[in-house]
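Consider the following assembly input.
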Amino acid sequence: MVKPGDGYKEIPEGGLILESGNAKRYETGGWRTQRPVIDLDTCINCFRCWAFCPDSSIETEDEEIVGVDYDHCKGCGVCAHECPVDAIAMEQE
Amino acid sequence: MSEQVALTGNEVMSQAMRQINPDVVAAYPITPQTAIVQTFSQFVNDGDVDTEFVPTESEHSAMSATVGASASGARAMTATAANGLALMWEVLYIASGTRLPIVMPVVNRALSGPINIHCDHSDAMGARDSGWIQLYAENAQEAYDNAIQAVKISENKDVMLPTMVNMDGFIISHAVENLNLLADEDVQDFVGEYHAENPLLDSENPVTVGPLDLQDFYFEHKMQQAVAAENVKDVVLEVAEEYEELSGREYGLFEEYKLDDAEVAVVALGSTTGTAKTAVDNLRENGVKAGLSKIRLYRPFPAEEIAEALADLEAVAVMDRAETFSTTGGPVFADVRAALYDMGADVEAVNYIYGLGGRDLKVEEIESVYKDLEEIVETNTVEDRVQHLGVRE
Ligand code: SF4
Ligand code: SF4
């Protein structure tokens, strides 16, 4: 498995990725300038944010929204834009 | 059994492709390469090859389809020239950067404009930094031999880089030459079967080809490419040795023609080297110690070896069939001169840009270059470092 900081002698050639389903190991949270914060009391569990999030970063448990996976959320704000009850606020990082 | 045949450069190149029998050929016709693709598509039609032939709508698509086929694990080839090569540009870098061992004959032709369909090296020379290996040929026999060897060079595990097999447009591609074709089964044995290490179509071991590669790993991948380029020279020599056993024809990184005891020499590549050999013979008859260095492997550039071969000369003229408009000379000149500088060689080096757009270069003109060199040696002065040979004022 390729790890951050690996040298050119250790990684597969030509930019190939040899393991499938590896996107979750590539943490894109560092790209964020604003973070979505969900007010779970206002949330009506419509799951729009969950459906629209391009990074599958809305976390759920027992069919309820519970929070955001900040290791992968890029802070695009789509969830906040789509929320019908304004339960998501974008806060400066 | 090998056989003696009379064929044009394009015909013999399509014969090489038939004998290699690639899994996929994706191509678009362009003068002066057209006959390669046309003849090869006839082989496909007649069932002489097992190749999947993809007629594309442009060279950008031809190279893209070739890249896709190669990534999927196929032995893939295409062929092009001039503006076709230019249209492939961005995909050339994807082929080399993805480490795909594609072999592509390039029938060298002037890059427009003004529009011109005849030979010079402005097409391939522009692509000299694209990460492709570049082989050049004096004649059709060499172009054929280079194409077959290129498969083995490109697919070598220590290399895994694509190769352009260059041959001069019209001068080689359209002239009929008496040459030797290897037996089909000998070529098949020589190139063997291609087994890609991580083919895209291996559903048991899924891989991703061409993902985003940013600040954190792109540089490492380019470093791998640089290391692979370093490995090319040795592999070219190994493959040449093996090929000589099969064909009886000897190849190296470059050919030294009467260079051993030469005082003045020309460095060139492509069909002009044939003319230069005649010039050397003529001058030798008149007591001039003339020699020639004919470059076969131009990318990666065998700098040390070439400098070593030139180090004992008094003066050398580098011939370039391409302008860079840098005002400091042609591409081959820049490489040769830098190599001589690194070696600390005390050799005066000058540059002649010639033959642009198919302008013929005659034996006497090359002889005049040697005369210039003799004068440089005599007077110890270089009046014009970079000259244009054969152009009208
Ligand atoms: S900000 Fe964008 S990436 Fe982050 S959770 Fe919302 S929709 Fe997903
Ligand atoms: S869109 Fe808003 S209301 Fe709907 S689940 Fe997400 S946070 Fe809750």
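DSSP finds two helices and four strands in chain A. Ask yourself how this observation constrains the way the partners meet.
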